[in-house]
Amino acid sequence: MLNYNSLVAETKNYTDLQISVHEPIVKINLRGKNRDFITKVGKELSIIPPADPNTSSGNENLNILWLSPDEWLIYSNDKIDLKNINILEDKLYNEISKVKLGSVTNVTDHWIMINLKGIKVFELLSAGCPFNFNGFKNSRGAVTQTLLNHIDVIIHNKNINDLNLFVRRSFSDHLWSWLNDSARFI
């Protein structure tokens, strides 16, 4: 596993906008198709993976984002230690991958989660994103995969004006710089 010390460890506050990195958190990619897969995931996590496109489900500890008809991203709400990652991953692996119901891949090192809060969140995103946020911003739990400043991102609308944005680690510093540069002019 990679070193969890992110280069960006600070929270930036602007007028009506806060940008912060939340790391390390567990991130696991799930793939599967059949009913037994959905049942096992629901039983192990106490959350049923969403079946509707671009939606999410969650509880106080975990969120599951719909990425495609047979793919989901699980992420934790709180920072974790290595022991918790292994427990969750092993539990899912033993119940899903080992019995060939689907695949479980730990992508904790692959994605960085940036939290955006405030009234100007969608104004900031619209400055560098082709996605139309009109319906999205009022849909709690909505998920989209889009481009932001030419970088692939996953955006989860956790609550009104409270988003989690997932970006690949290799692009995170560039996106962090762009977000902060753009936030100063909004």
What can you tell me about this protein's structure?
- By secondary structure, the chain is of the alpha+beta class.
- The protein folds into two domains: 9-24 and 110-186, Gyrase A, domain 2, CATH 3.30.1360; 25-107, 2-Layer Sandwich (Alpha-Beta Plaits).
- It has four helices and eleven strands.
- The chain has helices at 35-45, 82-97, 121-126, 169-183; strands spanning 11-14, 17-21, 27-32, 56-58, 62-68, 71-76, 102-106, 111-117, 143-148, 151-159, 162-168.
- The strands form two sheets. Strands 1-2-8-11-10-9 form a six-stranded antiparallel β-sheet, covered by helices on one side.
- A hairpin with a 2-residue loop joins strand 9 and strand 10.
- Helix 1 runs antiparallel to helix 2.
- The protein is globular.
- The model has no long low-confidence stretch (mean pLDDT 91).
What labels describe this entry?
six-stranded antiparallel sheet; five-stranded antiparallel sheet; 4 helices; 11 strands; Alpha-Beta Plaits; alpha+beta; single chain; 186 residues; Gyrase A, domain 2
What characteristic shape results from the CA principal axes?
A: globular
Number of domains: 2
Class computed from helices, strands and strand pairing: alpha+beta
Strand content: 25-35%
Q: Give, in order, the helices and strands.
A: EEEHEEEHEEHEEEH
User: Largest sheet, if any?
Assistant: 6 strands, antiparallel
Gyration radius, to the nearest Å? 16 Å
DSSP helical segment count: 4
Strand order of the largest sheet: 1-2-8-11-10-9
Give the oligomer, counting copies of the same chain as homo and different chains as hetero. Answer: single chain
* Share of helical residues: 25-40%
Assigned CATH class of the largest domain: Alpha Beta
CATH architecture of the largest domain: 2-Layer Sandwich
CATH topology of the largest domain: Gyrase A, domain 2
CATH superfamily of the largest domain: Probable tRNA modification gtpase trme, domain 1
Mean pLDDT: 91
> What is the terminal separation in angstroms?
37 Å
Counting DSSP E segments of at least 2 residues, the number of strands comes to 11
Low-confidence stretches: none
